[in-house]
Amino acid sequence: MSATPLTTTASTARLQQLLPQLFQSDTQPGDRYLKLDISPDLSALIALADVQESVQLPTHMVTPIPNLPACILGVVNSRNQVLCVVDLAQVLQIPARTVHRQHYSIVVVHLDSTTGATEDANLLALTLHGIQGIIRLQPEEIESPMSEFAAELTPFLRGCVVRDGQSIPVLDVNAIATAPILNSL
What we know:
This protein is mainly beta. The protein contains three helices and ten strands, in the order αβββββαβββββα. The strands form three sheets. A five-stranded mixed beta sheet has the order 3-6-7-5-4. A three-stranded antiparallel beta sheet has the order 2-1-8, with no helix packed on it. Strands 9-10 form a two-stranded antiparallel sheet.
């Protein structure tokens, strides 16, 4: 019986040596942000707290609705909720190459619930060019974006972050949801 605790201790020590991240608490400082590509030429960040999920969705799953602005691609049923699918680049007036895709990269975001809308209305599906990953930022790293980006983009920003000499915009999902082009119906 005395051999088992030594074997267990030795195994645990070996695992701690090989996989130290499993035995450390997640104490990295900062808020988490999803880094995404709006177009091939522009990356941006969205607070991970605003993101419900990200998915690859076949284009045929999006049901087009006639007589809506071109940025509204249609609707999709996801987890028994009907979501409006919006082309983020078009909403932000960012030139993007038109590519016929078989799949959309989509991020479903939570919107501010102070509008009194139903829970379903508080979700919006944004199509992107791609998703890069998650980064952490300290609140003081987010700077004013006013001189960095086009005037059309600044109403949709919380700020920007400079990483590797490049300014990356930090998007405000509630400002995107209240964009004039989406509310002109």
